[in-house]
Design a protein that fits this description.
With 545 residues, the protein is an alpha+beta fold. The chain has 20 helices and 17 strands. β10 and β11 form a beta hairpin. α11 packs across α15 and α15 crosses α19. It is elongated, with a radius of gyration of 30 Å.
């Protein structure tokens, strides 16, 4: 990692993750850059417990994970390699039709709904490859809207929430005829253009009408390689796009190929049907049309055109700012009916990020079970992991709701994560593992899971007060930790505990906790509980750094 002096002081302070600088819930900053003193400087730094601690000349203290600082330094040194904006070619896999000889990215609708990992795979394909197909989507009216809402929000246009792609008697768009349509971007006359399009096949008994896709980023990349001057011309020439009918007048001026500040391809806007009249000097028009024709010819190369047929129940999801879509002509008397809608990539990217965050959370918990969980459990006849898995299995066997099964499973994670170990607890130092565990879990789960965990030690002290026979049944190790943790509650403390939200659930978890200490008991592994945990994971923002 670079020394702190190699980093910008204002940048470092602007990214301070403490609760005084950022809202703990949403990660948003609580100060303006002008609130920082003009002479701000680092006064002292210390590395401790995997963090860099910084004391500033204005008295503020910051604490940064060293791993985060290392990543930040790498981003600064290699700006073109950072993951950054997944809208550009840097975050995509450019492709040719032959790349899908073994099959296109697809998943079944039921799996997409039920399995977060499957849904993440579909969304990742759309983000990186530009498209995916869901099979087995019910062939019901307006079902395409339900597909869009599994990862985002429907974008309403002048066509409404959705549109029917079928032969219309008085069409206001060539899409609503049986004519062939060459590779194009939908709605290029909007600013911003809809970034995602969905097409759900309800019926397809027509002769012809096959679908086609072209990777517009790959086509633009070829133009850049083969004719760099033409590529540059198309990135800097605003092109007028227009659409009008009886109730709509839409116009936008954007280049056919849009790049970001680093010169990376970010958006393709290509539609011969909607290009308006370009007003430039004759020589500039000749140059533009030569480049335009060259780019159009590249998009029609057979090796770039991926063709397939949508059958009833298939729903195509694709990136409308990257892929160009097409269709062959079909028999106008044949039955071909698709329903489509628009959505946006930012919602898809957000959903994918949350799903990935959930996967990371579950992987972290599973690593704890399979690593530190193999250790002895406070003098009992089972390991720590065996104890928690037994508790969860008991909860599941008793028909407990999902949040209590999760609380039973995770109630002792604080033994893994705190500054004071379970061994030190047995030696007489209270490690407050219930609070440590609840604080860790609060990064991912809501209070219905975290509060029974936070209160499960207090529940033991409470039960010892209100149920004398309960204490008599405690194991010797549990009796020992009872004394370290404060002993039975007094009457007033017990009454206050019983009034707490989550106290009843904590008592329920405590009873499974006490029964879950039997050696050689067969229980499901952590993998068995992953789907349940995935459904419970909270969607609140994670830590800012």
């Amino acid at each position: 990692m670079s020394e702190p002096r190699a980093l910008s002081g204002y940048w470092l302070r602007d990214n301070c993750p403490c609760a005084d600088c950022r809202d703990p819930g949403n990660g948003q900053k609580l100060f303006q850059i002008t609130d920082l003193p003009a002479d701000l400087a680092v006064q002292e730094t210390t590395e401790r417990d995997g963090h860099l601690e910084v004391r500033w000349t204005d008295g503020h203290r910051s604490r940064y994970p060293l791993t985060w600082l290392a990543g930040a330094t790498a981003d600064r040194d290699h700006p073109r390699d950072r993951p950054g904006d997944h809208r550009t070619e840097a975050g995509k896999r450019l492709w040719r039709a032959a790349d899908f000889a073994a099959g296109i990215p697809e998943a079944h609708w039921d799996a997409h709904l039920a399995d977060p990992a499957e849904r993440a795979a579909v969304l990742r394909a759309v983000r990186h490859l530009g498209f995916a197909v869901l099979r087995g989507v019910p062939t019901e009216d307006r079902q395409v809207l339900a597909v869009a809402r599994t990862f985002g929000h429907v974008r309403v246009t002048n066509y409404g929430e959705l549109f029917d792609v079928r032969v219309e008697p008085d069409p206001n768009n060539l899409a609503f005829t049986s004519a062939a349509i060459t590779p194009h971007t939908d709605n290029p006359y909007r600013d911003p253009v809809p970034t995602l399009q969905l097409l759900h096949c309800l019926e397809n008994a027509a002769e012809g009408g096959d679908s086609g896709l072209v990777d517009g980023f790959a086509a633009a990349d070829l133009l850049r390689t083969e004719a760099p001057e033409d590529f540059a011309l198309l990135t800097r020439t605003p092109v007028p796009f227009a659409f009008r009918d009886r109730s709509t007048e839409l116009r936008a001026e954007r280049p056919l190929i849009e790049t970001d500040a680093l010169g990376r391809i970010r958006e393709i806007r290509f539609n011969n049907r909607s290009i308006g009249t370009l007003r430039l000097p004759a020589a500039d028009l000749d140059a533009f049309y030569a480049a335009y024709r060259r780019f159009a010819a590249i998009t029609l190369r057979p090796e770039l055109q991926l063709a397939f047929r949508l059958d009833p129940g298939d729903c195509l999801i694709f990136d409308n700012t990257r892929l160009l879509h097409a269709r062959t002509a079909f028999d106008g008397d044949g039955r071909r009916h698709l329903q489509g809608c628009y959505a946006d990539l930012d919602s898809l990217a957000s959903t994918l990020a949350v799903l990935d965050r959930h996967t990371e959370a579950l992987d972290t918990l599973q690593d704890l079970f399979e690593g530190e969980g193999a250790r002895e459990y406070l003098g009992e006849a089972v390991t720590q992991a065996e104890h928690m898995l037994q508790a969860a299995a008991l909860a599941e066997r008793d028909g407990a709701p999902a949040h209590l099964v999760a609380a039973a499973l995770l109630h002792d994670v604080g033994h893994f994560h705190g500054a004071v170990t379970g061994a030190q607890l047995m030696a007489g130092t209270d490690n407050r593992h219930s609070h440590t565990g609840a604080d860790l879990l609060a990064r991912w789960f809501g209070p219905e899971v975290t509060e029974p965990v936070r209160l499960h030690v207090a529940a033991k002290r409470y039960l010892c007060t209100v149920e004398p026979e309960y204490r008599a049944a405690l194991s010797p190790a549990s009796e020992h930790t009872l004394q370290v943790q404060g002993g039975p509650m007094g009457a007033e403390e017990a009454a206050a505990f019983a009034a707490l939200p989550g106290a009843a659930d904590a008592v329920t978890v405590r009873r499974w906790d006490d029964r879950a200490k039997t050696a050689d008991t067969r229980t499901p592994g952590f993998d068995h509980f992953r789907p349940l945990l995935a459904r419970l994971l909270a969607t609140a923002p994670g830590e800012p750094v």
